[in-house]
TrEMBL record:
Family to which the UniProt record says this protein belongs: Belongs to the AGR family.
Gene Ontology CC terms, in alphabetical order: endoplasmic reticulum
GO molecular function: dystroglycan binding
Signal peptide range: 1-23
Identification of the protein by name: AGR3 protein
Species this protein is from: Campylorhamphus procurvoides
InterPro entries hit by this protein: AGR/TXD, Thioredoxin-like_sf
């Protein structure tokens, strides 16, 4: 009986240890939380203020994505955004990136309302580019998964504007 319980205890210990090891391993490779699924290779800033600071400092446009976890349109756009290599690459290299699940105090970021998903660009001179709009006249800064090519064009436009204006 003694042998039996020692064996059972050893097996229990092994099970607990390997579960712990798996949990630790998961922890290590967990995507950085700031990405929230929009792209784990992208360096995300945490706040709008930090985004403005980085945009000015790096002379890159700031891209602000407003979204909510329980919004199906946001989830669909996020999936398309994360899966698009061109967007991911531009976001990594040419933009200061921020995704927000709350509104900022800057009213310029909601010129036509506080809907989600909403994507806006701010240039390095810290001007919100309300002129870079999506396809929908009722929600100027909304994008749907099928609008990804359009979003890519707008990202390129945001980059071109910097070269020509600053």
């Amino acid at each position: 009986i003694m042998l039996h319980s020692t064996l059972a205890l050893s097996l229990l210990l092994i099970a607990v240890t390997s579960n712990l090891a798996m949990a630790i391993k998961k922890e290590k490779q967990a995507p950085q939380t700031l990405s929230r699924g929009w792209g784990d290779e992208i360096t995300w800033v945490q706040t709008y203020e930090e985004g403005l600071y980085q945009a000015k400092k790096s002379n890159k446009p700031l891209m602000v994505i407003h979204h909510l976890e329980d919004c199906q349109y946001c989830q669909a756009l996020k999936k398309a955004f994360a899966e698009n290599e061109e967007i991911q690459e531009m976001a990594q290299n040419n933009f200061v990136m921020l995704n927000l699940m709350h509104e900022t105090t800057d009213k310029n970021l909601s010129p036509d309302g506080q809907y989600v998903p909403r994507i806006m660009f701010v240039d390095p001179s810290l001007t919100v580019r309300a002129d870079i709009t999506g396809r929908y006249s009722n929600r100027l800064y909304a994008y749907e998964p099928q609008d990804i090519p359009f979003l890519i064009e707008n990202m390129k436009k945001a980059l071109r504007l910097i070269q020509t204006e600053l």
